[in-house]
C-alpha cells in the first residue's frame, strides 16, 4: 500500500473536509430529532418536505457512488460513450415523476400508509401479512446492499486520495450515516441529501472548468488515441453497437419503483408541488450526468497522461491490494490505445 494517496500533501485537507462533512451530517440529524412527533414524521417527514428539497433529495439519494466514481472511470476508459449514462437516467426519472409520483402520494395519504410494504398490503388487499413480510424482506436485503455499496465507495475514494485504509472510512462513515438517520429519520435524510446534492452540483460545475483550464480540451487526444474513444458506439458496429447503447440506456430501468425514490414521492408536502420537484430533479441531474464524463475524458490531455505515468510509478499499489480501484490503477494508468 502506498504511504500517501493521490492527493499527496493535500491529503490532510481532504481528511479535514471529510471530518467536517460528517459533523455537518450529524448536526442535521441532531436538529431533525427535535422535529419528531409521530411515526409519520420519522418515516416520511410528516409529508411536509418542500419541492426543492424533495427534488434534490430524490436525485442525490439515487446518484451516489456510481456517479462520482463509476461515470468518470467509465469515461476514463471508454471515451465519449460514457455520456450515454444520462440517456437512460433522464427519461426514466421523468417517467417516475409523471407516472408514479402523484398517484403514490395521493393513495398513500388516503390509506395512511407511510411505508411501501404497508402500501402494497393495502393496495393488494392482503390480510395474510405475506405481502408486507416479503416486501419488507426484499427491501432490507437489496437496500441494505445498496447503502453498503455507497459507504464502501466513499471509503475506497478516501483511500485512493489520502492513503488511509478504506476500512477506516467505511466504519466512520457508516456509524455517522446510521447515527443521523436514527436520530432524525426522514427529515435528516432529506436535508442531508439536499446538502450533499448542492455539494455535488457545485463540484461538477467547477471540476470540468478547472480540468479544461489546466489541461485543455481532450477530444483531439481522444481522436489520436483511437477512433473508438470519440465514437458514439465506442467503435462497435452492428448488433454490438445496438446492444451497447441499449445497455447504457437500461441504467435507468431501476428508477421507477426504486424504494428510496418512491419514499420521496410519498414525503412531499403537496401534490401540486410534484411538478416543481420534478423540474428541480431534472435540472440537477443534467449537470451531474454530463460533467463526470467530461472530467473523465480529460485524462487524455497530454499533461494528464504525463502526470499519470509519474504518479503510477511513485504510487503503484502492491498486487495484493484489496481495493479494486487502487489495484486496477484505473485512475492513473491509461489503457493501451485501441
Short structural summary:
This protein has helices at 11-32, 39-44, 51-62, 65-78, 85-110, 116-123, 130-162, 166-215, 219-225, 227-230, 238-249, 259-267, 274-297, 302-314, 324-328.
What does this structure look like?
This protein has 338 residues and is an all-alpha fold. It has one domain (8-100, 183-328). Helix content is 72%, strand content 0%. The chain is built from 15 helices and no strands. The protein has helices at residues 11-32, 39-44, 51-62, 65-78, 85-110, 116-123, 130-162, 166-215, 219-225, 227-230, 238-249, 259-267, 274-297, 302-314, 324-328. Helix 1 crosses helix 8 (166-215). The longest helix is centred in the middle third of the chain and has 50 residues, at 166-215. The model is unreliable at 307-338 (pLDDT under 50).
- SSE pattern: HHHHHHHHHHHHHHH
Overall number of domains? 1
Sheet-strand content, in percent, reads: under 5%
Helix count, DSSP H or I runs of 4 or more residues: 15
Taking the sheet with the most strands, its summary is:
none
Query: Would you tell me the structural class of the helices and strands?
Result: mainly alpha
